[in-house]
User: Fold this.
Amino acid sequence: MVIATLGLCVFLSVFILDSAQELFGLNQPDNPIEVVIPEGATNKQVIDILYDRKVITKTLTFMLYSSLKVDEGEFTPGTYNLNSNMGYDEIIMYIRYGLMEQTTVKITFIEGWTLRVIADKLEAEGVCDADEFIEYLETAELDYEFIDRLPEDDLRFHRLEGYIFPDTYEFWVGEKVSSVAKKFLDNFENRITEEMETQMLNLGLTLDEAITLASVIQKEAGNEEEMSNVSSVFHNRLDDSATYPQLQSDVTIFYVNDEIKPYVDITNQTMYDSYNTYVREGLPIGPICNPGIDAIKAALNPAETDNYFFVTDVNGKYYYSKTTAEHDENVRIAFAEKPIDGDSTGEVHGTGVTSE
Assistant:
């Protein structure tokens, strides 16, 4: 009897835990499912349809829970766009009140966008709240092997900056932040190949260091043609740290000024300096944007050059040099250039161009 009782307790514990995850839509697969509720369907028939369509897997739990929420015959017939990651309350709300139209939006996120820009775009398109999305990424326990490998440091402004992979995605309007985040993170996980991991190992880079370098390349180069050359400059500096202890990348200062300072209430100079590569030696403490696949590949495949400096003018022309004297002359030339089209929004930047 003791063994039987213990066994029953274990079974009930597992059942309750498993049911609770489905009840609240936690850790459930993201599968859009079309469901047709016919005229005159009883509540039990509706539950059976949801089970057959794999919207739910626990018919008993759903039956008990829904009986507390709706009376017999209150489910509305129609065609519904549901999802296996919906919690019971959301499912019941849809089929009780006849919410048949669930709008989707397709959004393209540009390489080099920061987490804040991505979050604001999601909110502008009605997908989810920007601050809730960022908060989820900062605090949620996420089951990804690559996240387990990231360093834990309070000086990182956003722990997953760099890993929200830029691409074109389709979302539900009003989608749960957990589901939205999963699409980005799944994509990143699938894009990093074993070959890339081997290249990182051969270069002596961790995953986070590779993505951090790629993020700087993404912001400095901007176009695929220059990425490998810009990558070469940074690799040369990293390999000769005795002579060039700092990367002196202007875009790391831009990140501090544009993406950190406006969103903190108290000045944190230590954090600012951990990103500022005029102060910090080597790479910044973490990525400064979310790089695309071309920038990641460039970080792992730098061109073979002897350059330690570069600068780009307002028209996007790049000037490379080996010495400080050559670089100073290139900076003078870059600042003297006038926009070709008269209203260029380009900005002079590179290595050792500004320290402000």
Residues 38 and 175 are 26 Å apart (CA to CA). Strands lie at 32-37, 78-83, 104-108, 168-172, 309-312, 318-321, 349-350.
